[in-house]
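The instructor's notes for this session suggest beginning with a concrete chain rather than abstract definitions. Hand out the sequence below and ask the class to guess, before any prediction is shown, which regions might be ordered.
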Amino acid sequence: MSDLDLLTQSLARNVKRWRTERGFTLDALATRAGVSRGMLIQIEQARTNPSIGTVVKIGDALGVSITTLLDYERGSRVRIVPAEQVVRLWHTEAGSHSKLLAGAEAPGPLEMWDWLLMPGEGSRSDPHPVGTVEIAHVTEGELTLTVEGTEYRVPAGASVTFEAGAEHEYANRADVPTRMVLTVSVPAVH
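After discussion, reveal the predicted structure:
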């Protein structure tokens, strides 16, 4: 089974599991996540590979991390994620990408990412649930973070934290690559 097939099967199993555990019907989850009922059916039947945006929306609606939705090894309290199991969730032809390094439920979803943004590239994000906090640490280059239309410059060695319940964008407006580690904490679903 390929890595993509493994992730598709894991996503199908975990979306159904968490939807059932939360007591959501397909219609209720579709409404909460802002995705179609048909898309959820295809995901739960492992017949599609949704965009990262769709997976984020579903995770936010369920109150679980992307790591939890893609997890195919539920095991002990200590989990080491080998380098070959790190999931690259998006990339561009120029080389920009993000990798989900690890995640946990503590008490809501908590994720750690490795991002590389090539010069002139960026990634927009819709607002996350109210109470979501993101923390980024820039290790190379300079990050331009835009939150609700205001730009913030974050140089290498600096960190930034913000409430991510608003539209935001990570961008590289410099001439050299930007690398950062990003942590996302989403409040638990009640």
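Then share the key points. Strands lie at 87-91, 97-105, 109-117, 122-125, 133-140, 142-147, 150-155, 159-163, 168-171, 178-185. Residues 3-22 form the longest helix (20 residues).
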